[in-house]
Amino acid sequence: MEPTEAPLFRVTHTKMESFRRCRKQYWFSYVSGQEWPPNRDSAASLIGNGVHRAMQKLCETGDARDGEHELETYFRMPKHAIAGPDTEHYPLAVEMYENGVKAHESIESEARWAELDTWVPSKSRGINVRAKVDRADRLSADRWQLIDWKTGRFDLDDKVDAQLDIQHLVLRTTLRVPRDATVRAMGWNLRTGEQRVRELTREDAVRTVDFVMRFIEKVATEEEFMATPGPTCTFCDWRDRCDAAEQNDKVGIDWLDEDWEKEAAPF
Ligand code: SF4
Known about the structure:
The protein is α/β, with parallel strands linked by helices. The protein has 9 helices and 6 strands. The protein binds iron/sulfur cluster (SF4).
């Protein structure tokens, strides 16, 4: 009988972020096997999705009317009524798309791709990395660009950088970017206009994949999955099934005054 190969560990930026944020949350999402809580749409998440959908259409045809129509139909859907055309949120979505059209017009490239969503396996490292790239451009044979459109009020630099590094890895592999080519990876915020730029080489991709492998080796040996409640609990989908957040509020740091603690550690 042929020896069976161990399955590759599936990695995404979201999965890694979840582990960093709160290991209990990671456990709920990827280890427990529990059914995921239903998606809670918010006006902000709908605006983000709607603008991304419009930017995809724009990138595909280059005609601003296609994105405009996508945006309009998306927000007319009854399911998206909380951010629909009659709400205060819709003009913001329109404004961001208009900024997106200007961004699109400012990019001169030989070829472009929208919404690249791919798995990239590495058998030698035991991982399978997945990332979605909102937009990729070949500026010239040895110069490429990837963009992650942002629509929030602000972005956290370290998270954007980590996300761009993984997207870079996937772009370089999927589109067979030449060895010596450089990639400009950008988080481009369509609300604030801010651009977070990373200049990346093939060597950076190697360093990223090695880092991801070591990170995953650590995740794979985790057994405790301790909760680390904090501000992030507010947006955690598992909050209703997790007692740690509530417990933290109740206990506070008053536990330092309790007698059992003084006796247990008499220093
Ligand atoms: S509610 Fe808070 S403590 Fe509980 S899993 Fe979510 S992030 Fe972690």
